[in-house]
Amino acid sequence: xxxxxxxxxxxxxxxxxxxxxxxxxxxxxxxxxxxxxxxxxxxxxxxxxxxxxxxxxxxxxxxxxxxxxxxxxxxxxxxxxxxxxxxxxxxxxxxxxxxxxxxxxxxxxxxxxxxxxxxxxxxxxxxxxxxxxxxxxxxxxxxxxx
Amino acid sequence: xxxxxxxxxxxxxxxxxxxxxxxxxxxxxxxxxxxxxxxxxxxxxxxxxxxxxxxxxxxxxxxxxxxxxxxxxxxxxxxxxxxxxxxxxxxxxxxxxxxxxxxxxxxxxxxxxxxxxxxxxxxxxxxxxxxxxxxxxxxxxxxxxx
Amino acid sequence: xxxxxxxxxxxxxxxxxxxxxxxxxxxxxxxxxxxxxxxxxxxxxxxxxxxxxxxxxxxxxxxxxxxxxxxxxxxxxxxxxxxxxxxxxxxxxxxxxxxxxxxxxxxxxxxxxxxxxxxxxxxxxxxxxxxxxxxxxxxxxxxxxx
Amino acid sequence: xxxxxxxxxxxxxxxxxxxxxxxxxxxxxxxxxxxxxxxxxxxxxxxxxxxxxxxxxxxxxxxxxxxxxxxxxxxxxxxxxxxxxxxxxxxxxxxxxxxxxxxxxxxxxxxxxxxxxxxxxxxxxxxxxxxxxxxxxxxxxxxxxx
Lengths: 146, 146, 146, 146
What we know:
Four copies of one chain form a homotetramer.
Chain A: E1 11-17, H1 31-48, H2 53-58, E2 62-72, E3 81-91, E4 95-104, E5 110-121, H3 132-145
Antiparallel strand pairs in A: 1-3, 2-5, 3-4, 4-5
């Protein structure tokens, strides 16, 4: 197979309830918590693709984060029901990008949106080609959703 | 005074030692930890400017984060000595931007670089003009370093 | 009503999936993460009792933690399905205690067990009597499960 | 050498400044943050003993936490200067215990006190005897402080 730039329509939705520990003294969710939710959304996306990240990780591969961006639009508070929508943005031989939208599920308000870029690394931390079975899992997911 | 776009040369350096809790199962510092360090660097920058953020916060103002970006270049590990260099990038009537560089203090390697944007909010969470005494503190710092 | 020492049989079960960010470089869940899960379990217990903690908190009351204990028996790993079983241990006019058991839902293994004690505080942080409507909610839950 | 029950007078003091991210919506430091500080205090204790934990960890040994207790007495707030005093409580062939006191350095108030127990594990996570060079480092520290 040839990993290639691909824009998937497959969006995975993850439900989260805001934890007390995720708030800060401004009374809202701390901005770093969203980055952790992005990760949870990404992991759930892979699970939805039939490719659990724990399995990739146990096989000795990891998607190290090279870039994170997040734009915050509206605050979330303790107890709020949250929906993290994750999409695969691009897939190359050694890199993968995901995008995220974080909604308040009650109000439907978009609270944050962002993007992460990743390189595939092996157990020694060296950059490596994304194994075929992983790339196929990722694109298969996109295709099956097309 | 007139808050205005200003590019400061004043860089504040904060020393951090990587905590065990800041690592993840890849054996390196988790990417969300850098966002927390940016915040610590920003707070230390303000302290260095004679304008402790705790004082701003107690006066009822906060710099809510509207944007975060971080590019990761080289991993940090448990126990590594870290230097966070923070700079004020721009200051407007309601907004402020900071940039960050995270170094491994032992090797001198740049491990991550990023930027945050903020709006000033009052205790109710509503956007508000940065109070003069705060803007003066921020620019005074830049000027005194010029 | 008379808040009193009461031992509830009502156990609430919360399902959690281990987040990558909750691991550390030993490859297992960091021990502080369990304390955050205890809190999530406690909050879910209250929700199950028809007494959302967010509602108590908005009314100006909080259950400040005065004591935490946790015994760790078996490690949890990234992606593991986790069950947090929470029970009300005792309820007094100003204090409440909960106990927790954390299981690996796949294997059924008990991974950790602990307890937290709390005092009721008002918005100023001063200790106060647990409001009747809160105490009734807590004991009603226990009773209804009896 | 014979690792044995030993009560050390050697106390290591670690200075921390409360991070914004360590607060919660009650406006105080979240209780789980203290557990992370205990760990930082313990690591600093070992560093003070000339036995950096990173070195133990790189050699393939870890002190897995088996028990945590913390009693909270007085709240800490964002920006507060904190002192974590760590002591070795006991050392056995496979186990070690530390105690902690967390002070507000400004006021001198004791804010929290706790204890952790640990077993020595190897890279596979199996319990193992504490290597002699580690036990000697730990007790040497106690002796040299006597």
